[in-house]
Amino acid sequence: MLTVAELLAGKSERVVSIGGEASVLEAAKLMNQHRIGAVVVTRGDEVMGIFTERDVLNRVVAAQRDPAALSVKEAMTTPVACCTLATTLEECRAVMSEKRIRHLPVVEDNRLKGMISIGDILKTKSAQQQETIRYLHEYLYGGTR
Fold first, then answer.
1. How many other CB atoms sit within 10 Å of the CB of residue 131?
2. Is residue 79's pLDDT more than 70?
């Protein structure tokens, strides 16, 4: 079973993060710039929370709050569900499904190491299934010559 470490090996090591004192408007611009749905809220390498598109909708837009005047720490989700490098992708999928979330920061020794999304897990699962299909097809019908 694949682990988070194996998944991260094939991804960019860069994780987009923001400080809690930044405004929600700054966070939204950062998310748009990088075309992502969540940023990790950090103090140094320590994870303080996560700020997602859902936070924008629920805690800013629906609450009719000014995104330029509201800090990220006031609107972020905390505590944040995290995983480690040794966590299996199946365990991550189960946590994401149970908590109805799409992003998990990866933390080791209280330091942010990466971020995985449900999209990463689905992409990996799809690649594994395609490989299984190819293997079974070759087994049933012979290898390609």
1. 10
2. yes
